[in-house]
Amino acid sequence: MIRRILAQCTVSDIARAEQWYSLLFDRAPDLRPMPGLSEWHPGDTFGLQVWSEPERAGHSTVVLDETDLDAAAARLTASGIAHDGPVPGGSARILLLSDPDGNRVVITGQ
Known about the structure:
This protein is of the alpha/beta class. It is built from 2 helices and 8 strands, in the order E-H-E-E-E-E-H-E-E-E.
């Protein structure tokens, strides 16, 4: 039985990525379990790992579901994370982001 899921984004510079993802999550990482790895755990059974592996950097996609997409978009704008605002995306709206390596971060919500 699977009890936990950790998504992963692969980056070229862990320090630069940690700054960006700290803005995304509005806090520092919850764990740095080993060199080159930072983790955020927004829930008990799920999280996001940011892993330094330069040769694979920029080819990841992660989808995050947000309770208030408009508030998230406003907070990210205030934090300096560029985006074009929420757009229709299937049965919800989405906010498309790109981290410094070009990894796609999609935030969904209403």
